[in-house]
Write a structure and sequence with these properties.
This protein has about 270 residues and is α/β, with parallel strands linked by helices. Helix content is about 30%, strand content about 20%. The chain contains 9 helices and 12 strands. It has a 6-stranded mixed β-sheet, with helices on both faces. A two-stranded parallel ribbon has the order 1-3. A two-stranded parallel ribbon has the order 5-6.
Length: about 270
């Protein structure tokens, strides 16, 4: 059973950005335990709101609010990765709250009632909350514009006061064409390490402007993120947790296949 402590209604839930890995994460000797230890230290959420790099859809779209099959959005893996199940309860009440926070003139909120959790959502949740007993809602990334996503996070922030765990799920560096599938644990190419070092320092400094403009401020930005969808969920996290930048921790760091798995908690 999950060992996460009970949520205190008077306290705000933290907000997370995590590097979600891929289906083989379950076979890693270290990473699943890191995720499990992290969740055990968190207050138990009333619900989980996932924003994954693997669902882009505009305007903001709400995924299934009932338990539906997972989205196996990957190809060429061994069959057992397609047999994973994560039958978390739907979160219709959370969906209604998200709609109330985001819908306004010129900004519709759509529904995809048959859209299950993709691997950016369920792969880490299997390790963090294996009992699948917490309601989960996934919403789409409506844009890849950092400022727009930061604003999205700010609009979602009130959910933290209701025990909702907001999770941005991506990968701190993500260039599969240059990933080293034979890399030893924590071995990384210079471009991935340089970007990760930069990210560590600007996060510690709370330099939101540098992060929002990372294409121009970060070393090796184009190699670390040829396309920014795996960095984009970080901006939702930063917006939702902007009041807690000084209450920041890094439960997971290091490298996997040469990619930085840096993951942060605000609050």
């Amino acid at each position: 059973m999950s060992q996460a402590v009970t949520h205190d209604p008077a306290a705000r839930m933290p907000v997370l950005y995590l590097s979600h890995g891929a289906p083989p994460l379950a076979d890693d000797p270290v990473w699943p335990g890191q995720l499990a230890a992290w969740s055990a230290e968190l207050p138990r959420p009333t619900a989980i709101l996932m924003v994954s790099a693997h669902w882009e859809d505009a305007p903001v779209t709400l995924g299934a609010t009932t338990t539906v099959p997972l989205v196996y959005d990957f190809w060429g893996f061994p069959e057992h990765y397609y047999q994973v199940r994560y039958a978390a309860p739907g979160a219709p009440e959370l969906a209604a709250k998200v709609r109330a926070l985001l819908a306004r003139p010129g900004h519709e909120v759509h529904d995809a009632p048959d859209r299950g959790l993709d691997h950016g959502a369920y792969v880490p949740l299997v390790e963090m909350y294996p009992d699948a007993d917490i309601p989960v809602l996934q919403i789409s990334l409506p844009t890849l514009d950092p400022v727009g996503l930061y604003d999205l996070g700010r609009r979602l922030a009130p959910l933290r006061d209701e025990g909702v765990l907001i999770v941005g799920s991506g990968f701190f560096t993500h260039n599969l064409r240059e990933a080293d599938f034979g890399a030893a644990p924590d071995e990384a190419p210079s471009w991935s390490r340089e970007f990760d070092d930069w990210g560590r320092e600007v996060l510690r400094a709370g330099d939101i402007d540098a992060l929002l403009n990372f294409r121009h401020t970060a070393p090796a930005a184009l190699r670390a993120h040829p396309r920014i969808e795996h960095f984009a969920p970080l901006f939702v996290t930063l917006g939702a947790g902007e009041s807690d930048l000084t209450a920041q921790r890094t439960p997971i760091e290091g490298f996997w296949l040469g990619l930085a798995k840096r993951s942060i908690q605000l609050g």
